[in-house]
């Protein structure tokens, strides 16, 4: 099951109110993956680019880049005919374009590896990876990723599953 929630974080209350809402309403249930970029798009990435969560936990994508719109879009055949890079039993997601400060939230239930990209910036290596659970947990854990199904420069942008499992999150130095 995938739950989605999309909307602006700061609606009318300003920064302090949104910070309070983040602490009270969301922080305990969802882990944030920020969409970050420099002015004029010189550098751009998901941050963290790799994240480990327990099955059923939620991830919230938030556009923290004041100068660009971004998407979080799962690699799967159902969405634009892309290669399958999420577990077979899982449903893909597409946040649609998020304006600055907008967010999109999903809960991931099926154990395995979920690779995703940003529609306008995939070519610049704006991709990420979420690992749900651990290999061997319950025997369901899956990684669907064919070598060569994406261009080499994009494949090189994914952190390894081993690194995500050992570190929990792979932050990006800004
Ligand atoms: Cu982007």
Question: Can you give a write-up of this model?
Answer:
This protein is of the alpha+beta class and 174 residues long. The chain is 14% helix and 28% strand. It has helices at 14-26, 152-155, 161-167, and strands spanning 4-8, 30-37, 44-47, 50-53, 58-63, 73-74, 102-107, 112-117, 127-132, 169-170. The chain has a five-stranded mixed sheet, with no helix packed on it. It is globular and about 45 Å long. The protein starts with a strand and ends with a strand. Copper (II) ion binds at residues 35, 44, 70, 118, 120-121, 126.
In this entry the ligands are:
copper (II) ion
Order of helices and strands: EHEEEEEEEEHHE
The CATH topology corresponds to Immunoglobulin-like
CATH architecture: Sandwich
Using the coordinates above, name the CATH class.
Answer: Mainly Beta
Whole-number mean pLDDT: 86
Oligomer: single chain
* Helix/sheet category: alpha+beta
Portion in helices: 10-25%
Radius of gyration: 15 Å
Strand content: 25-35%
Q: Summarize the biggest pleated sheet.
A: 5 strands, mixed
Largest sheet, spatial ordering of strands: 1-7-5-2-3
Distance between the termini: 34 Å
Feature tags:
10 strands, 174 residues, Immunoglobulin-like, five-stranded mixed β-sheet, binds copper (II) ion, alpha+beta
């Amino acid at each position: 099951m995938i739950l989605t929630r999309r909307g602006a974080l700061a609606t009318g209350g300003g920064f302090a109110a949104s910070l309070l809402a983040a602490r009270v309403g969301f922080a305990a249930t969802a882990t944030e993956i920020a969409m970050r970029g420099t002015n004029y798009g010189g550098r751009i990435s998901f941050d963290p680019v790799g994240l480990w969560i327990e099955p059923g936990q939620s991830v919230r994508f938030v556009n923290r880049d004041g100068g660009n719109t971004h998407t979080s879009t799962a690699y799967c055949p159902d969405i634009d005919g892309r290669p399958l890079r999420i577990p077979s039993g899982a449903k893909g997601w597409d946040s649609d374009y998020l304006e600055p400060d907008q967010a999109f939230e999903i809960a991931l239930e099926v154990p395995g590896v979920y690779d995703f990209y940003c529609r306008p910036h995939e070519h610049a290596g704006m991709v990420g990876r979420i690992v749900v659970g651990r290999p061997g947990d319950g025997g369901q854990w899956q990684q669907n990723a064919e070598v060569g199904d994406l261009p080499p420069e994009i494949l090189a942008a994914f952190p390894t599953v081993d690194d995500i499992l050992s570190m929990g999150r792979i932050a990006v130095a800004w």
